Amino acid sequence: MTINIEHSRLYKSEGVKLLYNNSLPGILITFIASTTLAFTFIDNNNFYAKMTWWLFMTLVLAIRLIDTHMWIKSDAKSKDRKDWVVRFSIGCLITAMLWSVYAVTFYPQFTVEELSSTNVILAAMAGGATSILSASFLLSALYNIIILMPMSVLLMLQPEQYKINLGGLGICFTLIMIISSARSANYIKEAILLRYRNKKLVSSMEETIRERTQEVYVISNIDSLTGLYNRTAFLSAVEGIEREFEQNHIAGFSIFFIDLDGFKNINDTLGHNVGDKVLIALSTRLKSFIGDVNFMCRWGGDEFILLVKESSHAITSELAENIIASLSLPIRLDDQTIALNATIGISVCPEHDFSITRLIQLADIAMYSQKGKYPERFAFYNLELEHNLRRKMTLNEALKGALERDEFRLVYQPIVDATGQIVSFEALMRWRYQEQEISPVEFIPLMEQSGRIVQVGSWVLEEACKTLAKMHKTNAEICMCVNISLIQFYDKGFVNNVNRVIERYAIPGHLLHLEVTESLFQSEQMMINEKVSQLQQCGVKFSVDDFGTGYSSLSVIQNMNIDYIKIDRSFIQHIEQKGLSIVQAMMNMSNSLNFSVIAEGVETEKQRQLLEKCGIPYMQGYYFSRPLERANAFAYLSTAIAEESSSEFA
């Protein structure tokens, strides 16, 4: 029942639209037909009557035209009112009546031509009404009956046979038009219903599309894990912030580049499932800092970006501290507690730049420069940070082909005993790039980070042993110290490579000293001990460089049977103050743990004398010699040998 009522309303609503939309052609045709008929057969006898009829017809058509215009101009809601159908139907039926009036009134004066013309016009009007008025079967049927039946009945009553035939034909034509009207009306109803169903289907499809579009939006704009914006959506969402600043609606804004410290270790040790839970927990904490005006996204991995409509350093610093404090709180997952820290880089508009993409880059630079520092875990961007980063990137790129371009070389710094005689040389790497000498402090860490230290370290070992082999011919007891990176120890071929070089240049193993830093003792002890032991079996000696500044585990040193300890230059520089007691303590330990001590960084005669009093057996530093080029090292060694020979001869 509800569906039938709905369909009935639909038919009426759509029917009114069809009637009025088709009315203008009908009115125009009626006007042309009535004008043609009235003025074609007008004469003195019927002039006033036909003019009166034509004026009435024109007036009705004008009124219908005005009514149609009013319907067109009315709003969509008003077009469905019932009175529109009544008004339209009255206008149509009055028009039909006027046609019948013409036929009946002027019939007695008809000539054969006018009779024929009138019948043709009435039949044409009836036929046209069948399609034009098809939206309403009742109106179409009444229109046909009114316009055709009076003339047909009148003709049927005439004595002439052809008129009787014409009358019968008119009645039959009326019935046919009524049947056609019924079929047209049914067809229109079916078309309206089909259109309605299609409209509902389209509406349903549009709703489905809207839902799917929303789903696609979420998939493409929202990070599925954290529920924050992803990178693309964030950049799109904050475009308006730049415009607000340009239009002076806000004084400025800040970009926070947030990176989690130690998150990779969680993924590596506890698995990615736990890592995802940690990200979800920390993202929930970060959401509390978004507020109504800030924007945040997961930039990627364990990196987040927060845009704050604030440019004050004091306010942004306080916010950064609060974020770090929140992220540093322990996370409880099932039966384990996880704690992380965070590092934040901050860039400010308009202080640093105006473009959001550029400010993100600057905040990233500030974060990277601050990474791993404590207690300050956030930093504001400054030009020096970017300069340093660009220099690192440039050098890192240049390092890729430095070995092939022969940009590396070795210099050699002598190590002397207590009598001043040379006992060994330390091979030190130098890099000349674009007519500049790059400090090892800069390029060694870059090579370690990229892993190139393995290839370059192998080259250093080869070059140092080649030099040692030549020096060995001059002085059979001269040694060569080569610095080894922890990363080289992790290389599977490291031990074999050392043995290969020793055999290739026929060097006694005890003349090769490998220098390591204290960071070696923080690594996998079983693997390190095994490799050190294998090399010591070949006679290779080990020394610990920069001793006292790092891990300094004496028990580990004892277990590894370290041969030499190099006292860091920082203690030698302050030997006249507290450094002397530290040097004496190291000498005492060396006697107990059976290793020798080398003091590096000796620069003055006073330092040499104090070290000699402490019993330091070996020294190295600018006081004795700066690092020497290969040829100069050979010359220095030859001179020292000559002086030693002269002294013995004397």
From TrEMBL:
It comes from the Bacteria. GO terms for molecular function: lyase activity. Its EC number is 4.6.-.-. The chain crosses the membrane at residues 18-41, 53-72, 84-108, 120-143, 164-182. Residues 251-383 form the GGDEF domain. PROSITE patterns: EAL (PS50883), GGDEF (PS50887). It holds the Pfam family GGDEF. Keywords: Lyase, Membrane, Transmembrane, Transmembrane helix. The keyword Transmembrane applies. Residues 392-641 form the EAL domain. The keyword rRNA-binding does not apply. InterPro entries: Biofilm_reg_signaling, EAL_dom, EAL_sf, GGDEF_dom, Nucleotide_cyclase, Rev_trsase/Diguanyl_cyclase. PANTHER family: BIOFILM ARCHITECTURE MAINTENANCE PROTEIN MBAA, DIGUANYLATE CYCLASE DGCP. NCBIfam families: GGDEF (TIGR00254). This is Diguanylate cyclase/phosphodiesterase.
